[in-house]
């Protein structure tokens, strides 16, 4: 068992936020005595910087959680031992390493299973769960925009769009969402003729007017946090009749585009009802088999309760989630405690 209270007896870690990095701390036989929760992480340097902030590491340490960098050049089994493995790296080889490790180390919680994450790397399968769910209750209705997959042959896009009855404008998104810069290169197509300029493989999604604000719903296990971000502005009928072409747009809803403090129309700014999001998150956690993700959800402009999920991301930028330090540490501890309960029952 590795519990917070027991850890606080350890004189090596009982002071306020220690200045040295966690990876300098020794683990091994000592760890058994101190009942530390050891979290191995395999993340990009960008992610380490945004996620493993000093305040977070300090808080975690005080709660008995030790973060240890995984060395990708050494066998995973020779490292640790870990209680939890956190990861967001791509590549078939890495996936296989994790899969093998899960088989041989069932006592370790790997967040999350590589196969389940793979599901989010394709913009079609990513939203399938939301479509299947057909969530509709007294709090509102949640769907996905109508969309079409184009695997190849740009010259056939206009025909395919016509056949499927999709309505312009369309958001063109690379089919693969693997975190590469290219996978975030999106464009807005205003007219049929220009569709041939697009580069498959892609997903064409109907653009839904939503008042220029979207909601990012961060999920960490059972915890949910919602923030507002600026998004693409509505496209008017007049604009649609005048504008021709395909336009690349940048990452409009990045962290710098926080709309939480903006003076917005309350009908646009009002957060989606909490019970609706709770239900959505719970179902998605179960259907996707994931515990760490966020989703982008928009409210159809002019409605109060028609929502569309447009994107789901694995292990998103939690560093920007308000209060992530406490939410995340509590989550990590709860994982270990529930494992202990399972073992002792
Ligand atoms: N169907 C849609 N209707 C209206 N706006 C949309 C739609 N799809 C995407 N957008 C706008 O485009 C932005 C980027 O789309 P999306 O979130 O799918 O891309 P992404 O590159 O996966 O983003 P992220 O950085 O969150 O991973 C959204 O944040 C939103 O502003
Ligand atoms: O770069 P940021 O910190 O903003 O985090 C973004 C994260 O990048 P990172 O994994 O490199 O951190 C993205 O992952 P990839 O799709 O590129 O894999 C994606 O999840 C975004 O949605 C995150 O933005 P958020 O949704 O939280 O605003
Ligand atoms: Mg998004
Ligand atoms: Mg995304």
TrEMBL record:
Residues that, per the record, bind 1D-myo-inositol 1,3,4-trisphosphate: 47, 88, 184, 216, 313, 317
Listed GO MF terms: ATP binding; inositol-1,3,4-trisphosphate 5-kinase activity; inositol-1,3,4-trisphosphate 6-kinase activity; inositol-3,4,5,6-tetrakisphosphate 1-kinase activity; magnesium ion binding
Domain Inositol-tetrakisphosphate 1-kinase N-terminal span(s) in chain numbering: 38-117
Keyword Signal assigned: no
Annotated Mg(2+) 1 binding sites: 296, 311
Bound cofactor: record note: Binds 2 magnesium ions per subunit.
Residues annotated for Mg(2+) 2 binding in this entry: 311, 313
Alphabetical keyword list: ATP-binding, Kinase, Magnesium, Metal-binding, Nucleotide-binding, Transferase
Binding-site residues, ATP: 123, 173, 205-216, 231
SUPFAM superfamilies linked to this entry: Glutathione synthetase ATP-binding domain-like
Composition-biased stretches (Basic and acidic residues): 1-15
InterPro entries: Inositol_tetrakis-P_1-kinase, InsP(3)kin_ATP-grasp, ITPK1_N
Region of interest (Disordered), residue spans: 1-24
Reactions catalysed, as given in the entry: 1D-myo-inositol 3,4,5,6-tetrakisphosphate + ATP = 1D-myo-inositol 1,3,4,5,6-pentakisphosphate + ADP + H(+)
Cofactor(s), by name: Mg(2+)
Domain of life: Eukaryota
Limits of the Inositol 1,3,4-trisphosphate 5/6-kinase ATP-grasp domain: 137-333
Pfam name, any one: Ins134_P3_kin
Any one GO cellular component localisation term in the record: cytoplasm
Any one Gene Ontology BP term: inositol trisphosphate metabolic process
EC code(s) of this entry: 2.7.1.134
Family recorded in the similarity comment: Belongs to the ITPK1 family.
Classification via PANTHER family: INOSITOL-TETRAKISPHOSPHATE 1-KINASE, INOSITOL-TETRAKISPHOSPHATE 1-KINASE 3
Subunit structure: Monomer.
Task of the protein: Kinase that can phosphorylate various inositol polyphosphate such as Ins(3,4,5,6)P4 or Ins(1,3,4)P3.
Protein name: Inositol-tetrakisphosphate 1-kinase
Species of provenance: Hibiscus trionum (Flower of an hour)
